[in-house]
Amino acid sequence: MRLLLINPNTTQSMTEAMTTVARQIASQQAEIVPVTARTGFPYISSRAEAQIAGAAVLDTIASHQSDVDAVIIAAFGDPGLTAARELFDLPIVGMAEAAVMSAAMLGERFSVVTFSPHMSRWYSDCVHQTGLGARFTGVRCPVTAPDTLENVATALRQDLIDLARDAVALDGADVVIMGGAPLAGLAPVIAWDAPGILVDPIAAATLQALALLRLAPSYDNRTNRPLHKTSTGLGTELTAVIAGEKT
Amino acid sequence: MRLLLINPNTTQSMTEAMTTVARQIASQQAEIVPVTARTGFPYISSRAEAQIAGAAVLDTIASHQSDVDAVIIAAFGDPGLTAARELFDLPIVGMAEAAVMSAAMLGERFSVVTFSPHMSRWYSDCVHQTGLGARFTGVRCPVTAPDTLENVATALRQDLIDLARDAVALDGADVVIMGGAPLAGLAPVIAWDAPGILVDPIAAATLQALALLRLAPSYDNRTNRPLHKTSTGLGTELTAVIAGEKT
Amino acid sequence: MRLLLINPNTTQSMTEAMTTVARQIASQQAEIVPVTARTGFPYISSRAEAQIAGAAVLDTIASHQSDVDAVIIAAFGDPGLTAARELFDLPIVGMAEAAVMSAAMLGERFSVVTFSPHMSRWYSDCVHQTGLGARFTGVRCPVTAPDTLENVATALRQDLIDLARDAVALDGADVVIMGGAPLAGLAPVIAWDAPGILVDPIAAATLQALALLRLAPSYDNRTNRPLHKTSTGLGTELTAVIAGEKT
Amino acid sequence: MRLLLINPNTTQSMTEAMTTVARQIASQQAEIVPVTARTGFPYISSRAEAQIAGAAVLDTIASHQSDVDAVIIAAFGDPGLTAARELFDLPIVGMAEAAVMSAAMLGERFSVVTFSPHMSRWYSDCVHQTGLGARFTGVRCPVTAPDTLENVATALRQDLIDLARDAVALDGADVVIMGGAPLAGLAPVIAWDAPGILVDPIAAATLQALALLRLAPSYDNRTNRPLHKTSTGLGTELTAVIAGEKT
Amino acid sequence: MRLLLINPNTTQSMTEAMTTVARQIASQQAEIVPVTARTGFPYISSRAEAQIAGAAVLDTIASHQSDVDAVIIAAFGDPGLTAARELFDLPIVGMAEAAVMSAAMLGERFSVVTFSPHMSRWYSDCVHQTGLGARFTGVRCPVTAPDTLENVATALRQDLIDLARDAVALDGADVVIMGGAPLAGLAPVIAWDAPGILVDPIAAATLQALALLRLAPSYDNRTNRPLHKTSTGLGTELTAVIAGEKT
Amino acid sequence: MRLLLINPNTTQSMTEAMTTVARQIASQQAEIVPVTARTGFPYISSRAEAQIAGAAVLDTIASHQSDVDAVIIAAFGDPGLTAARELFDLPIVGMAEAAVMSAAMLGERFSVVTFSPHMSRWYSDCVHQTGLGARFTGVRCPVTAPDTLENVATALRQDLIDLARDAVALDGADVVIMGGAPLAGLAPVIAWDAPGILVDPIAAATLQALALLRLAPSYDNRTNRPLHKTSTGLGTELTAVIAGEKT
């Protein structure tokens, strides 16, 4: 089995860090096929960027879908997730959604801890979009953004632990999701020092992709597909998918 | 004052029909600057298509914003609306949102009547996204899609009147929005034959754009803007806007 | 076109201040016909007062409806709005509702800033009644009430700017509505000094009345009207309207 | 103890029917003091009428409050309830709210059955206003209104039983509220013939008034009272209450 | 009439305190039949404990139902309430639910004040389960738990008054419920010293049991009963009830 | 790794059918340890039964937790799930919750199809309790209950396919959960004949248990545990767990 891991950000090092975690999780069960966005932004943090990056995600899936069994959209706000799920006939997993669904099975209320205030609103909207907003205790983040995203997990380690503590003690969270691609792999490392049950989103996404694949959804009889359409200016494969010439 | 009317569909004749309505409304108050999408789909009807068309909308606004005072996104599902509003410093109006907000000031509950079952779900999601879902009585549409969108307003005239009657009598709607670009201009024409208060979305959008402009929002002190960013592969103007070199 | 501007408070100077703003907005498009309540309270701030003043609003509309084209209920809590809209066959605009709907088209989340803690709860209920409570970040007001409402906009100018700043920075509002009749006209004056996008409710109400009029709702086929009824003890015109002898 | 039973409708025979039920319930525990509205409508069925009748209810309470221990607003849509509770320092019970709260303690979901389609929307809004809308299965009523309200409970007896059956079997209601003043006393009479647990609203209101009185709420330390105000054109007692000269 | 007062906790002194309050309320109208749980916990404060104690409550009701007319589940989180109401054909009142419903008829928003932070979450869930969460301002409790529950009402008297003050002044509560069996009888004692309208839950539960009994619900025609079932390992009476051999 | 599969029903054949599915899924990854309830009901279908069976589930987990790595509560209404998750320090998966969370990652709206109308309400409540009610299109079930649960999946095969068709075509579901223990293993068998994406709850539960285990939640630092307590009348192991003497 092959899992397409799409990093909708253009930063190669983030793809590598996330691929490392995904490979540890997938182990012998599946091969991870990483792809880094070639257009877009070093690090998506707004709805405008998600609108653009999400369109590129559809193009990437169209190009790779015949070679893979499932897709992971590996950015915390899940750009393009709803659109992709509507369009393609294979399991599509969003990193934020997978983390949220997993968290909701580990405890009753969950928080998202992240490294910068700029992500707070987009992440929050993203959680509400899953439909589980009533079990969400909010985003906890530092007051100011870090100067660089490089090594942010190491540099802010203690701050992130403190934020997790606040999420648990003040907000009543049972589970804390360490949100954002730059924090990939951090959760198990600080699990002993932080309160609550910590969730690593890329690990959760990989596990959910494996679970959904194994659950073997019968896409053959799927309904509610978009109408087939002609289009102008899209990539060759995406054009074919939307035209119904390729699924 | 100049209003940019973006038709995110690639069908030129829809742009023309909507421009006619918008010009009647704007009259001496503003000039309508119509633009038809050059990439995308003849008629958007799914989330996947809205993801792609919405990204193109951002590009179009970036190219024209220095020459206009406000923007109308002239497709009923408002592709790119949230992203555009976050990114640009001028009033952005969505055709569906404007119709919904207007309807909510004309009566207590409103319905959307449209010409095809394929739009039903996307339109419904779009209304819920405005936050006014609790006053929405649902979408009423024919059981089967028409063979062609050409002259759909004329061909289905009586069906649409009957659907409006059901929306009022069975669903309890006070106001009926005639949704979808191909129905532009129909509401005033059938107002005498249909029950309820009818709303024409493109008329509503034009009026709201004029109202917001006149309300003169102080974008200079706007906060909650996205961070400035470098990007790869976007159009020149959109790149500049996102980089903060142009607003 | 003539717009009836009803101040449901008995304070004549408030009517004058709001009429000045409304006339600037309406300009050549419509004549403003101001009416100040002759019974009721100097300044409504509770549900009990709104219950009484709202009944008087119906009486005032009944007396003037044949001479005007639309109605503005010019008090922030919109006393009598729902009842009036149900009863009369012309567009009825509430100052709070119009501000809220406009704010929701200018940004994603909005706040109400006002001059006294006594209004906080009534205003808050009023926003929730529009159905847009999920996009509302709450009311921001001074801890104590001012000694007098006279010149409250001038006297509290800096406090109100600070409250707007809190609404934006702490509550995450994109748009700030300057709520309450005594603040009529303040928003554009302080727009340069306050963060966020400021909305003046009486300006918003006038613009929405003009927009709804131009949208030309087809009241002739309106349904869901109350049954015609005899009544006892009401004013002559309201009695006739309710009896269905006059619309 | 004395309970003021205010019929906000002007129909004396309804007051008598409701007083009969209330007296049976109150028995030795309290004296029922019935008052029929002298202004207003024979039978309230719209928001406009409720706006007007609710203002009159405040006047009636102001005139009688010093002689009674609690108040029952005896019309199913509870006109003036929120306003009255805010203004006066004694327990105020609404007929609909009391029925809804009682129903919610007798089963999980409840329905309202009534005699005319004209009441359906107002009653429905009224239930949602209590906050218990999520447990409400809706209003069941005949398709057409009866010619007269006189003897409506007798004339429609079988129809009402059939509606209760639908509420239970089709909507999943556990409890059925027989809503509307003309149905006062009907619930126990048809209890053997109708499925579900039936609730008589005027009985529920009387019982809740007795319960709240006995619970002896400490109004002396009540806060969140409206500011004291001067007013123009109100009745003498209501003027004094609002001015804080009388509580 | 006889009211079964079940204390699902195993602490006899709590039963006695609650019985004293219930007897004062019931006076001549009903006899109180107190029962203390023989299995379970000294003081329930978690969902796990409520799961276990709630099952025991069903057993207790089955053993006593033929001798009583109504049941009070006398622990603030109402263990077993929904299950009991589904199973037995007599009025079942929960202490928390009765307090919440009564509070909602005395004011618009209500708070719960209690003596320990450990109860906060369970109580909060319990209020939301009634469906009235939108009118709930939250739980106010001390930062740390008391060393002993004995005399907790006396020992924490001033703290509880201060918490009530915060609930009213900071959270906007009109009514304050003194939650938890150890606070039985406290509300009327501190009514003069605390702001807001205070509610004693056991008094509210007794009053609601009397009201529901008097409302005389027609259980004979009740529907939506569970299927009759064989079972293994339950008490004799509960086995018979579930098998439909006894109601 | 060992997964405890608890069938809270007393019917051994159901345990066997579910164990077969779970073993196929778990394959080499984990050993399934099946346990059938020794007290309770042949097939749980009400809240009263869930209250009792849920308490027994806690006892079963307490007895086995030291020998297993995760727990599956294998009845569709998830009796005891919330309580168990609060009490024990290992992953606890509910069959309904796991199916719902999986469904929500496979499509936007999901339905539950089951074999009897008696389960409809309990299942529906159970879905709403997960927090994902807004994406739930409801339960579809036959109008009448089958005579026997034996071979119900085979006997009702065509009816269940038709119900799935209605869920997709009429209710707009993308995903259909085949709910209830007697339908274990049916989803993949009828996948080719039914529309939509089918989900087998016991397969989903097994997969989620494996995923959560692999996500390796750090229970060591878990907070929000219930207070340690003495108890009376519980099983030895459960007593020890609740007393904090064993985790």
From TrEMBL, chains A, B, C, D, E, F:
<dbReference type="Pfam" id="PF01177">
    <property type="entry name" value="Asp_Glu_race"/>
</dbReference>
<protein>
    <submittedName>
        <fullName>Hydantoin racemase-like protein</fullName>
    </submittedName>
</protein>
<dbReference type="InterPro" id="IPR052186">
    <property type="entry name" value="Hydantoin_racemase-like"/>
</dbReference>
<dbReference type="InterPro" id="IPR053714">
    <property type="entry name" value="Iso_Racemase_Enz_sf"/>
</dbReference>
<dbReference type="GO" id="GO:0047661">
    <property type="term" value="F:amino-acid racemase activity"/>
</dbReference>
<dbReference type="InterPro" id="IPR015942">
    <property type="entry name" value="Asp/Glu/hydantoin_racemase"/>
</dbReference>
<comment type="similarity">
    <text>Belongs to the HyuE racemase family.</text>
</comment>
